[in-house]
Design brief:
By secondary structure, the chain is an all-alpha fold. It has 10 helices and no strands.
């Protein structure tokens, strides 16, 4: 599966890096959905982690339940290359599908969280189900968090004054997306700075 990682947000990419570190630290011999879930919760600030936490999913409880689920399995041989399982690949595919369904041109931590829930058969999915998290519940919580973000980025501009350029509108729109992805209730300067950096990086 070819994954266009450039479409992942900074936080989503961080989750993937943390997932690999989790797998390596555990000596698992593979990168599984449990490592992805650990990483999502460990990152802690993305919209996916915030939504799951609000649904009662706690990192310490998740780790305890995963350890119990894996108890008795034979230890894997340390691989030369750590590869994601087929279920992780499916989770990422679902994350892209969810992003498209929601009309987003990026894949954020919220889409990864939904991918874990919707996949439904992995260790991570079963743990989330046992903790009472559902795709519908996660979608509702993600939407609730999104609505906390400002919807009128130019409301502070002086009435009757110059209107924002299309370029500025594009940058602010991306800053809003970054704020929503992080679970922030406001667009902060850091979101505008990151959006402007992305805009310049695209050669605009």
């Amino acid at each position: 599966m070819e994954v266009p990682f450039q479409r992942f947000t900074e936080r989503a990419r961080k989750v993937l890096v943390l997932a690999q570190e989790e797998a390596e630290a555990a000596g698992s011999g593979y990168l599984g959905t449990e490592h992805l879930l650990f990483a999502l919760l460990e990152e802690g600030e993305g919209l996916g982690a915030v939504a799951l936490a609000n649904l009662g999913v706690r990192s310490d409880r998740v780790r305890e339940m995963v350890r119990s689920a894996l108890a008795g399995r034979p230890a894997a041989e340390p691989p030369t290359t750590l590869r994601p399982t087929d279920r992780v690949k499916r989770v990422i595919e679902i994350a892209f599908e969810e992003a498209r369904r929601m009309g987003h041109d990026y894949v954020g931590t919220e889409h990864l969280a939904l991918g874990l829930l919707i996949e439904g058969e992995s260790i991570a999915a079963r743990v989330l189900q046992d903790l009472g998290a559902t795709p519908d519940g996660a979608r509702a919580e993600i939407e609730r968090l999104r609505k906390k973000a400002p919807r009128a980025p130019f409301q502070l501009l002086r009435p009757g004054g110059p209107s924002p350029s299309p370029e500025l509108a594009e940058v602010v729109s991306r800053a809003q997306a970054l704020a929503r992805e992080s679970g922030s209730a406001r667009v902060e300067l850091e979101h505008l700075e990151r959006a402007l950096m992305e805009w310049h990086a695209r050669g605009r």
